Amino acid sequence: MVSPTLRRRRLSRLLFQQRERSGLTAKAVAAEAKKRSGKTRGWSESKVNRLETGDWKRLSIDDVFLLLNIYNVTDPDERDGYAELVKEASRKGWWATYENVLGTGQLIGLEAEASSIRSYQSMTIPGLLQTESYARAMAIASSMGDADDVDQRVEVRMLRKAVFSRANPPAFWAVIDEAALLHITPELSDQLEYLVEVSQRPNIGIQVLPVAGGLHAAMTAHFVIMEFPMPEPPVVYLEVATEELYLESEPQVRQYTRRFDFVQASALSVDESRALIRNRLSSL
Predict the structure, then answer these.
(1) What is the per-residue pLDDT across 157-189, written as a single tens digit (0 to 9) for each?
(2) First to last CA, the chain
(3) 108-134 b/e (C-beta count within 10 Å ≥ 16 → b)
(4) Could you tell me which residue ranges the DUF5753 domain spans (predicted)?
(5) What does the angle CA 270 – CA 157 – CA 245 come to, to the nearest 5 degrees?
(6) In terms of Cα–Cα distance, which of 248, 162, 232, 225 is closest to 6?
(7) How far apart are CA 21 and CA 97, in angstroms?
């Protein structure tokens, strides 16, 4: 599947790199774009910045070609590549239908083409491993009484799992704090059964971080590290209350990769984790 989210990121990154190579500021590019287009309105420093960060709703191929002219990108094949990126980045993924419950849906767009996904969760089961009953219970709990969109949230959560049905499914590795398992009640026991089942798939690894292990490197937050086929750089996803953060700089990704390595080393092995989940299931 071609993810418009990933294409948007690539296009914005390339435009930023072209400007950096040209030695021009965003303000200077906007002024030159005004002069070349003959329009006094429509181009500004903030517009150039938005194009370089992916913060745009509609993108004109003419605007991109104008920028390429300013950056002296004249090779026909290279310009055709940009035109294809604009077309692919402007498409809508299936998740656009659920805009009212997803917002941008950027996480799903990134999952759609990720080659590997590493997830640490402290209090909940990772979204890609949730059963329908668990996802519904989570949606109801988080809605705080406003249950109008619960069905849609559950539907989206189940559709997300289609990434594992791809011809080249991502390698998925989850470290789950034992506390998340302790919150699973008898009526949600199918969630534990599902974890046991999927943990035996070749592309999915599940490790449990035991409560008895004490303090660890990821006490303060849960996070997801996504990697992609070249040339896309990895992304770290953080969810804080109602906000989503995407970290892309090398130092940030390196820090969270190291943090994941630490919690993974502190967790039980895959086989030990599967045994712990089975024990929790039998105790319900």
Answers:
(1) 999 999 999 989 999 999 999 999 999 999 999
(2) 40
(3) bbbbbbbeebbbbbbebbbbbbbbeeb
(4) 106-278
(5) 85
(6) 232
(7) 38
Which domains, from first to last, does the chain contain?
4-91 (1.10.260), 95-283 (3.30.870)
Given the DSSP bridges, would you call strands 171-177 and 204-209 parallel, antiparallel or unpaired? parallel
The type of residue at 227 is E
Of 99, 125, 98, give the one whose Cα is nearest residue 193. Answer: 125
Q: Give me the sheet containing 235-240, strands edge to edge.
A: 204-209, 171-177, 116-121, 223-227, 235-240, 243-247
Alpha-carbon distance of 163 to 269, in angstroms, equals 25
Contact 221, 124 (CB under 8 A): no
- Read off the pTM: 0.88
CA 110/CA 130 separation, integer angstroms:
18
